[in-house]
Amino acid sequence: MAAITSQLAQNEQRFKVQLEQLIAEREKQIHDTYQREISASKDVIIAELHQSDLYTKRARPTVIYAGLLFVLLELLGLRVALLSHLEASSAVIESSTAILSAFLYMWGAVAGAYALGRSAEKRGISNSVTRLVTGTSSPQHEAVTKTLEQRVKEQITW
Fold it and tell me: By the 8 A CB rule, do 131 and 138 touch?
């Protein structure tokens, strides 16, 4: 009986050690996965900062202009006129109205954040938040003294 109890205790101890090893291995895999995802995100951000395409600087104003175009078309009644011309049912017109309403709420939030950021910049307030919202770059004296990696780390909290 003592031999069986001893064997069970040894097996239990080995099981605990193996379980701890498996848990540690799994935690390392999870950590490595997070690190790869963070690294990939960082690489994308750095690539966007290095690209020479100026459209990324114009993307936020383009969203503003597109939203204004949709509002103008709605004020002219083109959406309802087009749907009526296509003989759409009233349910389709109501659902398109709901979609337009949701779009206008989201567009209003984006346009509002952009307008606030631009207003703050025009008043001389320039920080990481205003630059992130408006898409403008850092002032020249900061750009000279700080490396790209430092600027990215200031913009994003990992």
Answer: yes
